[in-house]
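Figure 6 in text form: structure in, sequence out.
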């Protein structure tokens, strides 16, 4: 079964409706938005606000923007953190913590990018193959990478 998004052509013209596949869409949670509960998505999401609960990315990528916060268990394929996350992160393909990221929790991913300036306190499990979830013992890591003067 296909999922379609609806968009309007032009507000001054007739209300002609176009249907297109949702594969090219992205959801943005604005900076004033607070979501409490579970989010499940099949499209890209950018979080500028606060999410408390769980985020499950069935498809698409997740970006926690610099001002974004997640107090959540996060599961997806590709996850990029520029903001703050408290909770477990599981990425089946790749997880990146940029220079502005602050993360506390357990990371499970086969590919981890930790940029200079990122702050991470938790455990890391990189034993899984790409596309599969890991369930082996974890290695404890605490890192605060500081930029060189």
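Output sequence:
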């Amino acid at each position: 079964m296909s999922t379609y998004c609806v968009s309007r052509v032009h507000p001054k013209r007739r209300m002609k409706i176009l249907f297109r596949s949702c594969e090219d869409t992205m959801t943005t949670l604005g900076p004033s938005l607070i979501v409490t509960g579970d989010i499940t998505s099949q499209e890209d999401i950018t979080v500028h606000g606060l999410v408390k609960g769980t985020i499950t990315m069935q498809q698409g990528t997740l970006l926690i923007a610099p001002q974004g916060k997640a107090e959540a268990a996060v599961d997806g394929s590709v996850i990029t953190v520029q903001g703050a996350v408290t909770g477990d992160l599981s990425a089946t393909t790749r997880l990146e913590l940029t220079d502005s990221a602050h993360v506390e929790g357990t990371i499970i991913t086969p590919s981890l990018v930790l940029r200079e300036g990122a702050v991470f306190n938790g455990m890391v499990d990189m034993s899984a193959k790409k596309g599969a979830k890991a369930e082996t013992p974890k290695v404890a890591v605490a890192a605060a990478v500081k930029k060189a003067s």
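Caption detail: Residues 1-21, 134-140 have pLDDT under 50 and may be disordered.
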